[in-house]
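Notebook entry, structure prediction.
Reason for the run: the old model in the group folder had no record of what sequence produced it. Starting over properly, with the input documented here first.
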Amino acid sequence: MSDDRTPDETTSTEPTPAAVDPRQERWDREAAAAPTIDADAYRRRSRRSFLGFGVAMAAGYLGFRHIQNRPETDNLPDILRTGLEGNEALWSTIGSDTRLARTFDQDDREDIRVNGRIGIRDEIDLDAWELSIVGVDGELIETLTLDDIQALGGEEIVWEHKCIEGWSTIVGWTGAKFSDLARRYYDSGAVPADHEYVALRTPDDGYYVGLDREMIHHPQTLLAWGLNGEPLTQLHGAPLRLATPIVYGIKQLKRIGTIEFTNERPPDYWAERGYDWHARF
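New structure, fully documented this time:
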């Protein structure tokens, strides 16, 4: 029986060529064009790389040991402390203590994690809590209750709380302006208005921060007793804590026990451990 099909209709038994991947063609061209070296040159190059790496490691180790053996200033090798203070001076000059942080609506508020319990590990009797106010001469001016602080007036502000660990949360605070408390003592003459710093400490003195005068006069720096519309819990610093949007959380001391006005830059817990004293961002 004859086959009347045309050649195009017949079934071919020859394999169909595989499609060529254009990427493979490019890789093949690049591989063919790549320079080659002989084995001896490769070994010499490898030895030089290894020796260079070793020298760099040794130099880094010796430099690290040199820094470690330097005299200390405020618990840091002096060369590191000098660099840190230079950075502080630069940012203090560039930054503006009068700028206002962005605020948000009440509906934007978020829960804030409990981060750090130094100075507040044990619960206290909130009804027995008192705030000690100390003057520039180191003498106690008076003690205040939470009612005394609340009598200064309340502000409700929602802003972004930033942690030096890299996270942030939009939080609402209720409290009195720190500047209103300071003005109470300026007006009475108990504290000179040109004092330089303020020191804050927890009741057990376990945690302490130093603030410059400009920071306590910032209009958004609060002595806060409320968080997201509710009274502070002890884990968040009840009955009273510092809250401000212009510095990291490490400066926003929880459970304030003492406020001391001073002309000497006060010690600061994390600055003693190598962090920037101002902790601004």
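Summary: The chain has two domains: 46-94, 101-273.
The old model has been moved to the deprecated folder.
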